[in-house]
Specification:
This protein is mainly alpha-helical. About 70% of the residues lie in helices and about 0% in strands. It has helices spanning about 10, 15-35, 50-85, 90-105, 105-115, 170-185, 190-195, 200-230, 235-295, 295-305, 310-345, 350-355, 360-365; strands spanning about 5, 235. The chain is elongated. The two termini are about 20 Å apart.
């Protein structure tokens, strides 16, 4: 190249393996989340009516991650590779075209300068730089976020209420106490979970989606850093046009992938919490129904000053259970609609904004 355009071919090409690594990080996240999203819904349990919305989210996440991997490892990498080849020329006419592009992209350079003076999350006052021997060293490690998740410590279980005085006259209370003491499991879950559903799997999905969002946020940070690091070996307005396109892609990934992942995680968490709360609400009523149905509830009824017959008490409890169950059904239906809506927020990258334009502009001249 002529001396008026600064471009270090060998150093610039070191960004290509870095872009491939971003594709690998994205694919690793794709495999990670698939392990949690690929679940089989049981036929029973109201929360499992989220299957339609869940499938829409699962498909959208998998599709967008696949496209994002292709963007890093193929679309962006091949574009930079072909663009770099333009600067290998020693032909006067081709050098003239490149100098013309420098003038053509003067406005892009001014825009990048203005954005670097802003407080935008993706733009800093100073571009990222590499290290000696590692010009495109990543500042973040996305795979560190793809960690196994568990139900423990999610806070959904809440604080267990201490037994009331009348519980000591309940046959069901003692059965629950003994079984839970021996096995570590509440036997009423055998009844409550088929009604409310297995909320644990939705807790896991929520946590995994948040981890994936954090991992992709780290990928975006590395993407922005790499294109900034390129400035050390490619100086000029054409480079600034490429920088602007990559930053646009980073913004699109934030808005069209990271944010929807967090929104979906919120919905899964809320659904799981609603299912668990429904179980917590139903457990005492189910216990009372068992006591009344076995006749032992009459003792509690007398001690509490109640004068209604056990059949009347049984009917009231059953009616309350039905009403509470219907309330939860409505909440799940709303959550399912929410998931379907979020699934449409996952958007593809717009090629016109996210692909560096220098190659296409050069070829059009």
């Amino acid at each position: 190249m002529g001396n008026d355009i600064e471009f270090d071919q060998s150093e610039a090409r070191k960004i290509l393996p870095a872009l491939d690594n971003l594709g690998g990080d994205t694919q690793q996240g794709r495999s990670y989340i698939d392990g949690y999203m690929s679940l089989t819904f049981a036929e029973e349990g109201i929360i499992n009516r989220l299957s339609g919305g869940h499938e829409a989210v699962r498909t959208a996440v998998d599709d967008r991650l696949g496209e994002l991997r292709t963007y890093f490892a193929t679309t962006l990498s091949e574009n930079f590779d072909a663009t770099f080849r333009l600067y290998e020329t020693n032909e006067a006419a081709e050098e003239a075209t490149l100098r013309t592009l420098e003038e053509f992209y003067r406005a892009d350079a001014r825009m990048v300068a203005d954005l670097r003076r802003s407080d935008s999350e993706l733009w800093g006052s100073e571009p990222a730089t590499g290290r000696r021997g590692q010009p495109f060293a990543p500042p973040e490690q996305p795979d560190g976020h793809y960690t196994p998740v568990s139900v423990g410590g999610d806070g959904i279980e809440g604080v267990q209420q201490p037994p009331g005085v009348l519980d000591y006259f309940s046959f069901t209370f003692y059965v629950r106490y003994v079984v839970e003491f021996v096995t570590g499991h509440d036997p009423l879950e055998l009844i409550g979970r088929p009604i409310a559903g297995d909320w644990d799997q939705f807790v896991l999905i929520s946590k995994a989606l948040r981890n994936l969002a954090d991992g992709l946020r780290a990928v975006v940070t590395n993407l922005v850093a790499h294109v900034d690091q390129l400035e050390a070996v490619w100086d000029g307005n054409a480079y600034m046009a490429c920088n602007l396109a990559v930053h646009n892609a980073a913004k699109e990934i934030q808005d069209g992938m990271v944010q929807p992942l967090e929104d979906a995680a919120d919905l899964y968490e809320e659904a799981a919490a609603a299912a668990h709360q429904t179980y917590q609400d139903l457990a005492p009523a189910i216990s009372a129904v068992i006591d009344i149905a076995t006749g032992i509830g009459l003792v509690k009824a007398l001690l509490s000053g109640a004068s209604k017959a056990s059949a009347r008490l049984l009917g009231e409890k059953v009616d309350w259970i039905a009403a509470r169950t219907s309330e939860f059904q409505a909440a799940v239906q709303a959550a399912n609609s929410g998931l379907e809506s979020v699934s449409r927020e996952f958007t593809e990258l717009k090629a016109a904004d996210s692909v560096p334009p220098v190659l296409a502009e050069y070829q059009s001249r």
